[in-house]
């Protein structure tokens, strides 16, 4: 049986006169890993922020866990947000804490049963456990932010360009974690990336945002079976500069 986690119908969103989303249809079933792709400025982050319930929209319907986001009270929104994890930009607050302290703090906040030592091992954070967050390099800050996102054992994880700025080993570590989390908990992952190889390797489905609409929304396998050599080729043939 499939369980629908997100259902979007004819979603429209403008910033002033800039019509960014012009009628998006989209669904995410429990357990899917979906890659949202498209050129710079296509509206990927805007779309994800609407799914995170952080941004308002102008027209259409957005259902998350079967609830229409627009009609929810603040209290109901909080209930939904508890089940979603997102990677937000670290705040000033992070700076004064060591990696292990941050993880412990968020574990307590989320009332998570995840083992901190396992997270430290999985994300290769052992050498940095006592390093202050603000002394970490950009890529390691990102890894810590991602580790925090996994701490809550979310039903849905929304990641905006999670691998940008990570070296090849760290990308592999993150993808290994995402796929393990997905298999173990059946959690749904929706992410944006400009790396088409990652989409091809790890995503069940692909949503191509182009000119404000979902030009293609299909399984990675069907796209490849339809004759494209790779998702990279598919992207280049569909999207002009
Ligand atoms: N808060 C905002 N106010 C006004 N315009 C915005 C705002 N956020 C985004 N935009 C505009 O909306 C369009 C889509 O931006 P968005 O960041 O969603 O695209 P993106 O596909 O994530 O881009 P990238 O791949 O470069 O990160 C762009 O033209 C951008 O300038």
Automatic annotation (TrEMBL):
Keyword Metal-binding: no
Residue ranges occupied by any ABC transporter domain in the UniProt entry: 6-236
Gene Ontology molecular function: any one: ATP binding
Keyword Transport: yes
Database matches in InterPro entries: AAA+_ATPase, ABC_transporter-like_ATP-bd, ABC_transporter_ATP-binding, P-loop_NTPase
Keywords: ATP-binding, Nucleotide-binding, Transport
PANTHER family: ABC TRANSPORTER ATP-BINDING PROTEIN, ABC TRANSPORTER ATP-BINDING PROTEIN NATA
Family statement drawn from the similarity comment of this UniProt entry: Belongs to the ABC transporter superfamily.
Protein name: ABC transporter ATP-binding protein
Organism this protein belongs to: Sporosarcina quadrami
């Amino acid at each position: 049986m499939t369980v629908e986690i997100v259902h979007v119908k004819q979603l429209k969103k403008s910033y002033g006169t800039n019509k960014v989303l012009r009628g998006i249809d989209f669904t995410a079933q429990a357990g899917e890993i979906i890659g949202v792709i498209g050129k710079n400025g296509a509206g990927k982050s805007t779309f994800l922020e609407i799914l995170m319930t952080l941004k308002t929209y102008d027209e259409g319907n957005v259902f998350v866990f079967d609830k229409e986001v627009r009609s929810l009270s603040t209290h109901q929104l909080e209930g939904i947000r508890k089940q979603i994890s997102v990677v937000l930009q670290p705040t000033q607050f992070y700076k004064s804490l060591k990696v292990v302290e941050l993880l412990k703090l968020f574990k307590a906040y989320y009332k998570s049963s995840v083992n901190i030592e396992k997270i430290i091992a999985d994300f290769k954070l052992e050498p940095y456990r006592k390093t202050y967050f603000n002394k970490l390099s950009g890529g390691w800050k990102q890894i810590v932010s991602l580790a925090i996102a996994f701490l809550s054992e979310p039903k849905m994880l929304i990641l905006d360009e999670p691998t940008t700025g990570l070296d090849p080993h760290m990308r592999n570590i993150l993808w290994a974690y995402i796929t393990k989390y997905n298999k173990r908990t059946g959690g749904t992952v929706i992410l944006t990336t400009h790396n088409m190889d990652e989409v091809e390797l790890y995503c069940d489905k692909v949503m191509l945002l182009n000119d404000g609409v979902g030009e293609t929304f299909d399984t990675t396998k069907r796209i490849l079976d339809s004759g494209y050599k790779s998702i990279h080729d598919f992207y280049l043939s569909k999207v002009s500069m």
